[in-house]
């Protein structure tokens, strides 16, 4: 691939991005102070109001999208619906010949009562705060990349859809169908999870599934009639041990038993248990192998006298391999980075994100275009201040090159269809 260069018009657009640095940092400080944990409906609505105002600067339609509910298994074994706050969708030029989908999320992992609620400076280039990297900083990078595109002479040549979801940190069960729809009609995708602190991007991603095994036994007095009881927790623990034993049998497969709910008073044989676990896989063959192992373990538990077990959940994010189509996206990202002095690298990861969802719909994508950060999902989360304009300029270059046709987005989509 021959090296690309920047025109004088493109350089002028990037100069504008440089001038937006202070306002971007002021915005992320304000947004970080809004608790928008995935289950905090009020906080998610407050954050959405901020985002509506911010994205209204674009020449685009801004609207909310209702998300279908999903189901969850409660700690006492009941099946209940889970409702979601609406997502925010921003759309421009639906009839454009080249279309891009850009995705991000407004939720964080920090609940409303979590002690990590404020933003502070650790040094002149480091912000510490909830969501500064994952991914309120990324949303600002996305926004300013699009604003830069609109300031360029080629903005009208590119159509885009933005989806900002409220449920990414809990699996995108509500927003998943919308991501699939948008990905299916886009040529390529751009997602704004944080890059690593050194600027490295995520390459191939594993697939992920979240499961719950509901176990029902029979309650009884632990002293007088223990023999009449059927201990659901003991059965659930046996299942947990069986699926944990699958670890190490297939290189790319990991199974993490994260929680067992159930039980109560020590003088009662527990009649309900819920075993929750996560599965990571490298490809679809891994997923099939893991399903078969899990199903065998479920069948074994159901052979126990007086025990009934049923499995809920599934693989919600398929693997995202480094296919030729996704590799082409990374090559373009690297080329765009070189025009602004970045030497971008990428590495495979076991983590998952909306990029998995987009790829499942056939949409090639790069999914770590957000700010440089570290220690996400902890009270040590940081974002590098200098990376806000840096990464916004990267997105601006990519979007302008897609609009001009120097990066042929339809070529990447054709490569994806050829698989």
Model description:
- This protein has 11 helices and 19 strands.
- It has helices spanning 8-18, 21-32, 41-55, 136-151, 176-184, 232-244, 284-301, 324-339, 354-360, 387-404, 409-417, and strands at 61-65, 70-73, 79-82, 87-92, 99-105, 120-123, 126-128, 159-165, 188-191, 195-196, 201-205, 207-216, 254-262, 272-281, 308-317, 346-349, 365-366, 372-374, 382-384.
- The chain has a 6-stranded mixed sheet, sandwiched between helices.
- Helix 1 packs antiparallel against helix 10, helix 4 (136-151) crosses helix 10 (387-404) and helix 5 (176-184) packs across helix 9.
- The radius of gyration is 23 Å and the shape is elongated.
- The model has no long low-confidence stretch (mean pLDDT 96).
Reported by name, the CATH topology of the largest domain is Aminopeptidase
Report the CATH C-level class of the largest domain. Alpha Beta
CATH architecture group name of the largest domain: 3-Layer(aba) Sandwich
DSSP summary, beta strand count: 19
Radius of gyration: 23 Å
Structural class from helices and strands? alpha/beta
Low-confidence stretches: none
Fraction of residues in H or I helices: 25-40%
Alpha plus pi helix count: 11
CATH superfamily of the largest domain: Zn peptidases
**How do the strands line up in the largest sheet?**
1-4-8-5-9-17
Strand content: 15-25%
Round the mean pLDDT to the nearest integer and report it: 96
What's the end-to-end separation, in Å?
Answer: 22 Å
Shape: elongated
Pfam family, one: M20_dimer
Keywords: Hydrolase, Metal-binding
Protein name: Acetylornithine deacetylase
InterPro entries: Bact_exopeptidase_dim_dom, Peptidase_M20, Peptidase_M20_dimer, Peptidase_M20A
């Amino acid at each position: 691939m021959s090296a690309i260069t920047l025109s004088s018009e493109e350089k002028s657009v990037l100069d504008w991005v440089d001038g937006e640095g202070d306002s971007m940092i002021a915005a992320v400080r304000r947004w970080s102070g809004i608790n928008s944990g995935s289950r905090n409906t009020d906080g998610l609505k407050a954050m959405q109001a901020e985002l509506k105002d911010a994205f209204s600067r674009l020449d685009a339609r801004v609207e909310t999208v209702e998300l279908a509910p999903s189901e969850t298994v409660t700690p006492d074994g009941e099946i209940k619906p889970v409702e979601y706050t609406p997502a925010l969708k921003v759309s421009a030029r639906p009839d454009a010949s080249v279309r891009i989908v850009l995705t991000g999320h407004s939720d964080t992992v920090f609940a409303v009562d979590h002690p990590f609620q404020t933003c502070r400076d650790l040094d002149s280039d480091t912000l510490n705060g909830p969501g500064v990297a994952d991914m309120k900083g990324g949303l600002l990078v996305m926004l300013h990349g699009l604003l830069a595109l609109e300031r360029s002479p080629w903005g009208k040549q590119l159509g885009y859809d933005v989806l900002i979801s409220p449920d990414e940190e809990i699996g995108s069960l509500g927003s998943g169908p919308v991501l699939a729809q948008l990905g299916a009609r886009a040529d390529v995708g751009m997602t704004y999870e944080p890059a690593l602190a050194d600027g490295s991007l995520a390459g191939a991603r594993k697939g992920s599934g979240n499961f719950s095994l509901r176990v029902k036994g029979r309650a009884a007095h632990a002293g007088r009639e223990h023999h009449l009881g059927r201990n659901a927790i003991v059965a659930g623990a046996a299942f947990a041990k069986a699926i944990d034993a699958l670890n190490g049998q297939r290189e790319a497969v990991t199974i993490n038993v994260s929680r067992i709910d159930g039980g109560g008073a020590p003088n009662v044989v527990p009649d309900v248990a819920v075993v929750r676990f996560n599965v990571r896989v490298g490809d679809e063959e891994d997923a099939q192998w893991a399903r078969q192992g899990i199903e065998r373990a479920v069948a074994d538990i159901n052979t126990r006298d007086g025990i009934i077990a049923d499995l809920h959940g599934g693989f919600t994010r398929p693997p995202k391999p480094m296919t030729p189509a996704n590799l082409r996206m990374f090559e373009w990202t690297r080329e765009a980075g070189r025009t602004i002095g970045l030497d971008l690298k990428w590495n495979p990861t076991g983590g998952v994100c909306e990029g998995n969802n987009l790829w499942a719909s056939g949409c090639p994508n790069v999914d770590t275009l957000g700010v440089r950060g570290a220690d996400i999902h902890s009270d040590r989360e940081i974002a590098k201040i200098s990376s806000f304009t840096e990464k916004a300029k990267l997105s601006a270059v990519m979007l302008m090159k897609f609009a001009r046709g120097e990066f042929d987005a339809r070529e990447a989509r054709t490569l994806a269809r050829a698989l």
